[in-house]
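Predicting holo structure, zinc ion bound.
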Amino acid sequence: MQLPSGKNPMQLPSHTETKIIRHVKVEGDASPYDGNLIYWSSRIGKHPEATMRVATLLKSQEGRCTYCRMYFRDEDVLEIDHIIPKSLRGKDEYKNLQILHRHCHDEKTTEDGSVVKYT
Ligand SMILES: [Zn+2]
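Done. Tokens:
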């Protein structure tokens, strides 16, 4: 018996043969920053561009401070940091920006060479 031309003799696997790979859920239903982007943004800056930056950065950092890895919380004071300080020719663009706690920002700033130290 010959297959009619144009028909593929291969069979698609049936549903029961197909492995189910379930999406691993991120721990904790409500991330501390969920729905709070506007809140944080409005706390950091009134300028529309600052607001956008904060929202974008918070999202990419998943609501965590990149310095101490802790989630930002309501009472925290946030600051936008230049990863490579502007004084060291760091650029004012997203890949060079991060949001840190104010106190983390202070610490980081003393380590990143952006503060001129007089000995
Ligand atoms: Zn921090």
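Strands lie at 78-82, 97-101.
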